[in-house]
Amino acid sequence: MWTTAKAPSLAEMEAMAHEVFERLPKTFRTLCEGLIIRVDDFPTDEVLDEMQAQSEFDLLGLFQGVGLPQQSFGDVARLPNLVWLYRRPILDYWAEHDETLGHIVRHVLIHEIGHHFGLSDADMEAIEAAAG
């Protein structure tokens, strides 16, 4: 087993994220219509600067776009909303914590979709605390 174990590739982690997304409740997924899920090894330098990250390992994921509460029917054509998952920081986090990789991917994905819904980090921490 240990001789064949390896970290998932970008494509494998993207497939995992889409599989996790498909398992979320249908009502939740319906609100995410048009949302694109992507995986990259690391955030871009521009994203790191914008988020004031100390290291390229600081961000596990990112929502880019216009959240649902800010959208209006009169909007001019805009870029699609994206959720980015960052493979290397997620793998680094996985190596340091006693959680399954699937659980971490699910948590990051739901967290970033929460931003799509217009929730702040504080909002989501409160929801998780109440649920936990």
Written description of the protein model:
- InterPro entries: Zincin_1, Zincin_1_sf.
- Pfam families: Zincin_1 (PF06262).
- It comes from Bradyrhizobium ivorense.
- This is Zn-dependent protease.
- The protein is mainly α.
- It has a single domain, classed as 2-Layer Sandwich (Zincin-like), CATH 3.30.2010.20.
- The chain contains six helices and three strands.
- Strands 1-3-2 form a three-stranded mixed β-sheet.
What attributes characterize this protein structure?
132 residues; mainly alpha; Zincin-like; three-stranded mixed sheet; 6 helices; 11% strand; Zincin_1_sf; Zn-dependent protease; Zincin_1
Secondary structure elements and pairings:
Layout: H1 10-23, H2 26-30, E1 36-40, H3 45-50, E2 61-64, E3 82-86, H4 87-96, H5 101-116, H6 121-131
Helix pairs in contact: 1-5
Protein name: Zn-dependent protease
Pfam families: Zincin_1 (PF06262)
The CATH class assignment is: Alpha Beta
Distance between the termini: 34 Å
In the CATH hierarchy, what is the architecture at level 2?
Answer: 2-Layer Sandwich
Q: What's the domain count?
A: 1
Describe the biggest sheet?
3 strands, mixed
% residues in beta strands: 5-15%
- The count of helical stretches stands at 6
